[in-house]
Design brief:
This protein is α+β, with helices and mostly antiparallel strands and about 240 residues long. It is about 20% helix and about 20% strand. β2 and β3 form a beta hairpin. α3 packs across α4. The radius of gyration is 21 Å and the shape is elongated. The site of 2-acetamido-2-deoxy-beta-D-glucopyranose has 8 residues, from β2 and β6.
């Protein structure tokens, strides 16, 4: 459903409002990409054993999910358990944050659902393994989905639901002195969110996200955004101005 995020090299010359986006490092890219050497399975095997009656929306690629899991090897020995740590695991599916077997295996899940995933090594840690996981290991996951939210496209920090304000800088510059310091910027973005006009990236402290957005806009890093800093970017890109900040 989501278009693939812009490739990171094109983010270097991000047009307009898009520059409030931060490139999320594709940490973990390459995980689970090893050749299917040791696994008898081609795909993830999914067994759904508790499906809630109400399931307004199933998980799909690009969603931000929270889930508990217990991970075991085929012999039943545990390799990891997020219940042990209390807080659920968080991931945006398709963002190279988790092994491919989880990106795939969590899809179609309902909040409250429990399922078992059997993940062949080429969709997990491959031939070489990982910390606590030997090479060519088949992994079993008992998963319980805690929550699901729409994610943002990879690399995006904030998106507008519709059009951004026509006079964006003026709206941000609350005291009309021609400069937007972090406080005004933060107040503005939070108002956009609370009024339902836009959405911040899930799964990260909003203060940090807004701080990152500010840094992206404050091109000369002098602690304030000027109309030129915003305007320059809006002039550079017209077609995407209505889509994301
Ligand atoms: C993980 O194991 C613990 C302890 O056996 C259990 O209470 C919990 O429900 C399990 N979690 C999942 C997601 O299966
Ligand atoms: Ca101001
Ligand atoms: Ca500046």
């Amino acid at each position: 459903m989501f278009p693939a995020g812009p490739p990171s090299h094109s983010l270097l010359r991000l047009p307009l409002l898009q520059l409030l986006l931060l490139v999320v490092q594709a940490v973990g890219r390459g995980l689970g990409r090893a050749s299917p050497a040791g696994g008898p399975l081609e795909d993830v095997v999914i067994e759904r054993y508790h499906i809630p009656r109400a399931c307004p929306r199933e998980v799909q690629m690009g969603d931000f999910v929270r889930y508990h899991y217990n991970g075991t090897f085929e012999d039943g020995k545990k390799f990891d358990s997020r219940h042990d740590y209390g807080a659920p695991q968080e991931a945006t599916l398709g963002a190279n944050k988790v092994i491919e077997g989880l990106d795939t295996g969590l899809q179609g899940m309902c909040v409250g659902e429990r399922r078992q995933l059997i993940v062949p090594p080429h969709l997990a840690h491959g031939e070489s393994g990982a910390r606590g996981v030997p090479g060519s290991a088949v992994l079993l996951f008992e998963v319980e989905l805690v929550s699901r939210e729409d994610g943002l496209p990879t690399g995006y920090l904030f998106v507008w639901h519709k059009d951004p304000p026509a006079n964006l800088f003026e709206d941000m510059d609350l005291n009309k002195d021609g400069e937007v310091p972090p406080e005004e910027f933060s107040t503005f973005i939070k108002a956009q969110v609370s009024e339902g006009k836009g959405r911040l990236m899930p799964g990260q402290d909003p203060e940090k996200t807004i701080g990152d957005m500010f840094q992206n806009q404050d091109r000369n890093q002098d602690g304030k955004i000027t109309v030129d800093e915003l305007k320059l970017k809006s002039d550079e890109d017209e077609e995407r101005v209505h889509e994301e900040l």
